[in-house]
Design a protein that fits this description.
It is an enzyme of class 2 (transferase). Pfam families: DNA_pol3_delta2. The chain has two domains: about 160 residues, Rossmann fold (3-Layer(aba) Sandwich); about 120 residues, Zinc Finger, Delta Prime, domain 3 (Up-down Bundle), CATH 1.20.272. It is elongated. By secondary structure, it is of the alpha/beta class. Strands 2-3-4-1-5 form a five-stranded parallel beta sheet, sandwiched between helices. Helices cover about 60% and strands about 10% of the residues.
Length: about 325
């Protein structure tokens, strides 16, 4: 459970703006939270709702343990409603059902809050229906729309919301938080470079499959350095058997990119920025094989491979081509 103190460490500006609006009793009828996945939008929404409903709050800080706070965390508060995509989109019927709920008197209080997740995924009909809802706001109703892409939403919806931009999480602070939870420094740096999401980082750290990702990336580098003729054999017999899904392969390529970022930082004497610190000997050897310029070129090759994976090019063919390109 997050407190305002926790959220101020993650999103200081947004947290302060929301706390100010609460303290000055100027809560907007609609907010648009915009930011990348894992930047705390969902957690901020739930915390703001707790500040609205908690009867034992201290200033803006909800108690986090009362009946209202606990039910918000479990998604069972009768006056707070979450709307999320059903399949690939949020449909008109979901907005109609939401409006129907809001015709009833509040069960616990006169306040009502609704949160629409992935708001950019509303169909045209759903967006138009929501627009009518926003055009006739009740002073007792607060809407919070969460989106990674506000430009994909109707201008008329955006104009009726107070826009709050969520910044990418500070990588160093995330690494420190992970270390504080007992995760090794090397893994904390790797995880904070891969994701802005504390929960996702924790889950990856506990995942045996992910533990082998790091090993396979180092093994691929060793093959490219010492046994380049066995590169395709390694890809077909070891790499592809571990990265069976496209999403998994994308993560493998992300870790491979971090290795080449380390190589560039090594060439620039930025030792503090290096993630694979335990592989110094291999990095020294790799620096003789790849200059800074060729390491930058390798990053562009990996990015191109990631693009092809997204375009449904056969994963094995993509990796074979990338391996041959990295050997040159």
């Amino acid at each position: 459970m997050q407190s305002w103190g926790d959220m101020k460490e993650i999103q200081p500006l947004v947290s302060q703006m929301l706390m100010n609006s609460f303290n000055k009793d100027r809560i907007s009828h609609a907010y648009l939270f915009q930011g990348n996945k894992g930047t705390g939008m969902r957690e901020m929404s739930a915390l703001f709702a707790k500040s609205i409903f908690c009867k034992q709050r201290n200033g803006t800080e909800p108690c986090l343990v009362c009946r209202d706070c606990v039910r918000i965390d479990s998604g069972n508060h009768p006056d707070m409603h979450w709307v999320e995509p059903e399949g690939l989109s949020i449909k008109k019927e979901q907005i109609l059902n939401l409006q129907k709920e809001f015709t009833y008197t509040g069960v616990e209080s006169n306040r009502k809050v609704y949160i629409i997740v992935d708001a950019e995924k509303m169909t045209v009909n759903a967006s138009n229906r929501l627009l009518k809802f926003l055009e006739e706001p009740s002073q007792q109703t607060t809407a919070i729309l969460l989106t990674e892409n506000g430009q994909a939403m109707l201008d008329t919806i955006r104009s009726r919301c107070q826009l709050l931009a969520f910044q990418p999480l500070n990588q160093q602070k995330l690494a420190e938080k992970l270390e504080g939870q007992g995760i090794s420094q090397s893994n904390a740096k790797l995880l904070s470079a891969l994701t802005n999401n504390l929960t996702t980082a924790q889950e990856l750290n506990d995942d045996e499959w992910f533990a082998n990702v790091r090993k396979l990336v180092i093994q691929l580098i060793e093959v490219l350095l010492n046994k380049p003729n066995e590169g395709l054999l390694f890809i077909n017999h070891q790499w592809m058997s571990h990265f069976k899904e496209r999403q998994q392969l994308q993560m493998g390529l992300d870790v491979l990119m971090l290795w080449f970022h380390d190589l560039i930082n090594h060439n620039l004497d930025r030792e503090d920025a290096i993630i694979f610190k335990q592989e110094k000997e291999k990095r020294d050897q790799a620096a003789l094989r790849w200059s800074r310029q060729s390491a930058v070129h390798s990053l562009s090759l990996i990015l191109e491979a990631k693009r092809k994976i997204n375009q449904n090019v056969h994963p094995t063919l993509v990796m074979e081509q990338l391996t041959l390109q990295l050997q040159r």
